């Protein structure tokens, strides 16, 4: 997410915004669409697949007093907990390190305004507890419970979208074991207001390494996704009780190239901004289903997801497609 050299980054200078024609599809995740086996479920699966194939992303709206998705009170606590976290001294936040690239703390970059803190395996209470202890040695139970509850609830939305994608391609039988080996990185992002004559890029254009990313931004806005068919940028407006779901590099390979990794960025105006992302990673080898080959042969081999993540950070200048091809693409003479 901090790929300063990633392809097309020059386009941040020339903002080509498509405000008239394209908007991200909005898909309803209300209870009546979520019972597997029903007609509504099938049509929602189809809508998810079509949105992912055309836009690599979509907005999912949920019922905020239903069974699924965080309630407004939780969302308010999440954003105030994030503020508390970013108000800590930089030396404290810097204690959050990880051997996995992008899972620790980083900020203070000249080419983008983001400061970001990762919490690996965020649906495990122990993991959120040990992060909390690192940041607040004398404890901060409210932070810990809020973030853990958020990660757990939002991971369920991510699971549903993953299930819908598997089902829409007719490979639902593989979904349970796939989900059993999924872990969730939670990343909190804080963006400062640019100084005069400084870049207004919050985060440079990039694709995530995830299978899917589930994003929430505060009311300030600024997220944009690129419409790959014509290169224009679509600003993302979040309706109340909604998330944006983005396809990552692992989904590109798993889908045999049918779903592209979502190229996205954040552009800043005059207000500081907070966002929170939940990033799904497969713990081990992602099997690319034969069924996705269609009439051709598979373009990608099964691959180690964390291996792909590490490869990406050693090959900063490659686009999502180039790095996925280089990492697990099937070469002609394979
Ligand atoms: O802040 C956002 O809305 C996007 C952040 C992002 O793209 C990332 O963390 O990978
Ligand atoms: Fe991202």
TrEMBL record:
One of its GO terms (molecular function) is oxidoreductase activity. InterPro entries: IPNS-like_FE2OG_OXY, IPNS-like_sf, Iron_ascorbate_oxido_reductase, Oxoglu/Fe-dep_dioxygenase_dom. It comes from the Eukaryota. Residues 180-284 form the Fe2OG dioxygenase domain. Keywords: Iron, Metal-binding, Oxidoreductase. The keyword Zinc does not apply. Coiled coil: none annotated. It holds the Pfam family 2OG-FeII_Oxy. PANTHER family: 2-OXOGLUTARATE (2OG) AND FE(II)-DEPENDENT OXYGENASE SUPERFAMILY PROTEIN-RELATED (PTHR47990). Belongs to the iron/ascorbate-dependent oxidoreductase family. This is OLC1v1000693C1. It comes from Oldenlandia corymbosa var. corymbosa. The lineage of its organism: Eukaryota, Viridiplantae, Streptophyta, Embryophyta, Tracheophyta.
